Amino acid sequence: MAPPDDRARRDAAFATLMATVAACRRCPAMEGRRRVLTTANGDIDAPIMFIAEAPGRGGAERTGVPFSGDFSGRTFERLLGEGGWTRDDVFITNAALCNPQGPTGANRAPSRQELTNCSGHLRATLAIVDPPVVVTLGAVALAAVGRIEPHGLKLTEARGQSFAWYGRTLVPLFHPSPKVLAWFPYVRMVEDFRTLRAVMDGAIIPDGKEVVQKE
Ligand code: SF4
Known about the structure:
Layout: H1 4-22, E1 48-52, H2 60-63, H3 71-82, E2 91-94, H4 112-129, E3 133-137, H5 139-148, H6 155-158, E4 163-165, E5 168-173, H7 178-181, H8 186-200
Parallel strand pairs: 1-2, 1-3, 3-5
Antiparallel strand pairs: 4-5
Helix pairs in contact: 1-4, 4-5
């Protein structure tokens, strides 16, 4: 737990960041979309931050809460439980904070430019929450954190392992979407979340370095 004055300083910094994001107009295609960065993303004292790709149309764009209200969100919550966590224990955000939609209104991947535009918000969120462990969900999120500090990792080779990165531990995992679950079984995602728990508990040492425990 952070000292009270440090917590107050970080609360103020997060309030400023939320206001900046709420007013952000960097991506023309995101006009009218919800900016999904609020206190509902989690506790800024959380020792672990999950970073996914972008809010989904049927999920966070509708509910305002990352990973809620759709299939991926329900799967993610079950996986969190497998690791022994609830939402209250973690902080969740996205590489792009608005829901990208194609011409038909369906979800699309954020463009390279949108990810670049949103990179500063992700960097600022990392600085405020300062989590000892960062978990990326999917290739887009892994590439997005590589813009903040290059890591040279490929998801297919790095999945489920832990790496020293940016003064903390990085664990790349697959995104719990229906598309991924079509070829990567849920039971293997469960194994990954249990391994993640072992990383958090200090039972697995990334790159020969200790996991920094949050005070
Ligand atoms: S995706 Fe990020 S950079 Fe783009 S408008 Fe939304 S908050 Fe701003």
